[in-house]
């Protein structure tokens, strides 16, 4: 299975430029410095798409049509909404639709810049039926494409979460050239890698700790290298970093966001007086077994092996941890794929798994996705071969 990361990089860069143009447009409207803190092109299981649309009560959708068709869904947290309303001198009821209009216009300008056709935006509407909003999203083989940006205003902790959902037919025509081998279906197959990895992580965490593990979501990001640290932000994490070698070389980060410091070690160690060295060793070993679990799934899909390095314990802000990954890949690619999973381990611990396959191994990762899909189809029983008693002959 061939996946052209150069083609992915092209529309990922356009999405990145669109996010910054949206922030610039907002700054022009309000007079407040605005920054786009995160932009990413994401593949997510269609059933998990709602998790990318925000949870704020202040959500607005803006449809657009032309060179690219679809809709933007903007979710404003309370601090952001109040700040914008104060600056514009009107209530949030009037301010937020205008902000949604400006942000969407700025974003789509980047997509229209290199196309002969224009992109026209429709009047903003408040989100009513969420399912109605996403039903025409770019879904291929149960996988949705999302361009996500997060825009902040200087002087406030508030954030606007800005998700653009292109229509599938329009998106396919926009990114696919007649003389290229680029395939949205091949790209969408990567979601299988994310979902299988997430299931393996959940089962290993549960087995090791005895605590129920709940999969929150899994997805694949295609993100400009310099944006990699923004995937985790400044939240503090403890965990382990590994490297793998084999059919796919990767860097893997297994990171735990703890409600209470030491919560992960407490799940693993019976001795409350265990020293820091023992606690760090336990966390690293948990990461090691967890990473080995899903890498074995990858290797089995191609009937090969993948070796893993000795874990390195880390305790730092998420952005600082991922900055080392960005530095390692920065000279080899403009855009990289990141296989993500988020798992809740009881009420006190959240596990983030970020796997960075080498850009040089993009085709092999596609082959793993195809192999995992074949394995899944093999697990489905052929009911035509069952006898009348309901048993296989």
Q: Give the CATH class of the largest domain.
A: Alpha Beta
Number of helices: 11
H/E element sequence: HEEEHHEEHEEEHHHEEEHHEEHEEH
Low-confidence stretches: 380-393
CATH architectural group of the largest domain: 3-Layer(aba) Sandwich
- The chain-level structural class is alpha+beta
Taken as a percent bin, the fraction of beta residues is 25-35%
Mean pLDDT: 80
The N- to C-terminal Cα distance equals 36 Å
Overall domain count: 2
The largest sheet, given as strand count, sense and whether it forms a barrel, is: 15 strands, antiparallel
> What is the CA-based Rg, rounded?
22 Å
Rough shape?
A: globular
Please tally the β strands and state the result: 15
> Quick one: CATH superfamily of the largest domain?
CheC-like
Work out the helicity level.
25-40%
CATH topology of the largest domain: Chemotaxis protein chec
Describe the structure.
The chain has 393 residues and is α+β, with helices and mostly antiparallel strands. 40% of the residues lie in helices and 29% in strands. The chain contains eleven helices and 15 strands. It has a 15-stranded antiparallel sheet that branches. Strand 6 and strand 7 form a beta hairpin.
């Amino acid at each position: 299975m061939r996946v052209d990361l150069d083609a992915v990089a092209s529309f990922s860069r356009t999405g990145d430029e669109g996010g910054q143009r949206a922030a610039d447009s907002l700054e022009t409207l309000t007079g407040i410095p605005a920054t786009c803190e995160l932009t990413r092109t994401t593949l997510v299981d269609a059933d998990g798409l709602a998790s990318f649309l925000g949870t704020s009560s202040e959500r607005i959708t803006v449809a657009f049509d032309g060179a690219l068709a679809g809709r933007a869904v903007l979710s404003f947290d309370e601090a952001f909404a109040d700040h914008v309303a104060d600056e514009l001198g009107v209530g949030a009821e009037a301010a937020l639709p205008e902000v949604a209009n400006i942000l969407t216009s700025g974003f789509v300008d980047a997509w229209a810049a290199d196309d002969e056709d224009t992109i026209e935006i429709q009047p903003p509407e408040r989100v009513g039926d969420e399912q109605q909003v996403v039903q025409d999203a770019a879904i291929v083989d149960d996988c949705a494409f999302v361009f996500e940006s997060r825009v902040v205003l200087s002087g406030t902790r508030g954030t606007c979460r800005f998700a653009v959902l292109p229509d599938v037919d329009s998106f396919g025509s926009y990114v696919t050239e007649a003389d290229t081998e680029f395939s949205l279906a091949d790209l969408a197959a990567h979601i299988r890698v994310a979902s299988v990895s997430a299931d393996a992580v959940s089962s290993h965490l549960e087995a090791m700790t005895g605590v129920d593990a709940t999969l929150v979501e899994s997805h694949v990001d295609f993100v400009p290298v310099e944006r990699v640290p923004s995937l985790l932000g400044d939240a503090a994490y403890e965990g382990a970093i590994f490297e793998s070698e084999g059919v796919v070389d990767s860097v893997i980060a297994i990171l735990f966001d703890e409600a209470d410091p030491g919560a992960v070690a407490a799940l693993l160690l019976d001795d409350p007086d265990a020293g820091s060295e023992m606690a760090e060793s336990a966390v690293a070993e948990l990461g090691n077994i967890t990473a080995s679990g899903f890498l074995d799934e990858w290797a089995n899909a191609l009937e090969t092996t993948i070796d893993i390095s000795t874990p390195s314990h880390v305790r730092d802000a998420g952005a600082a941890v991922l900055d080392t990954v960005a530095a390692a890949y920065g000279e080899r690619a403009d855009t990289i794929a990141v296989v993500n999973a988020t798992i809740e381990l009881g009420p006190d611990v959240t596990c983030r798994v970020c796997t960075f396959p080498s850009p040089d191994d993009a085709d092999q990762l596609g082959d793993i996705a195809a192999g995992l899909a074949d394995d899944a189809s093999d697990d489905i029983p052929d009911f035509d071969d069952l006898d009348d008693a309901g048993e296989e002959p």
